[in-house]
Amino acid sequence: MQAAKPVLYSYFRSSCSWRVRIALALKGVDYEIIPINLTKDGGQQFSEEFQTLNPMKQVPALKIDGIIIGQSLAIIEYLEETRPTPRLLPQDPKKRASVRMISDLIAAGIQPLQNLSVLKQVGEQNQLAWAQKAITSGFNALEQILQSTAGKYCVGDEVSMADLCLVPQVANAERFKVDLTPYATISHINKTLLALEAFQVSHPCRQPDTPVELRA
Ligand SMILES: N[C@@H](CCC(=O)N[C@@H](CS)C(=O)NCC(=O)O)C(=O)O
User: Fold this and answer.
1) pLDDT tens digits for 100-138?
2) Ligand 1 pocket mutation pick from 8, 16, 34 by most atoms within 8 angstroms of CB
3) CATH number at residue 73
4) Which residues form the GST C-terminal domain (predicted)?
């Protein structure tokens, strides 16, 4: 019997979903997308049906190999362990630690602070300044860290999980009108990565749920 196609619950604009879409593209996994619109109907992530899939009421969630996994980094690590090529975590433990440090810096130290649910709490008037502060304070640290870890990409010359976190976070920074001039290394790596096919096919402007006016 043929194994069921993996299903990704995703929102075109979600940076965490984009991380996983890049991993799936790099590893050549054929999958289906079920869009979860985070703003329509008060947010489809709050539906009872979706909550049974991911009790955190967030995208992404991936149905794969008979299980459902939430949390983008856990998903990427599962894909890495079950579909090891191309490698997204370097073999060298020190480089691997750098990849995880950068991934966590973004996934735990920046994105959650500018996530939709937090911005709702902050209120419309203060949202932009709040998000800009969260991103610049994380990017200040990241730019410094990259001086000692980066090659062509975030850690050396191989695309890693850190790069899957970087590109979607830079897109968020652009959305929140963060001035990227102080972040020359971040900007340069982002540009290099955006030229790769896996980053292009998974891009928010090219998803099944991308609104017509944002398609490119
Ligand atoms: N740590 C989670 C964070 C997931 C997350 O924050 N997802 C956002 C979109 S990027 C979301 O679903 N937000 C819905 C909401 O805030 O209501 C991960 O890495 O997957």
Assistant:
1) 999 999 999 999 999 999 999 999 999 999 999 999 999
2) 16
3) 3.40.30.10
4) 92-212
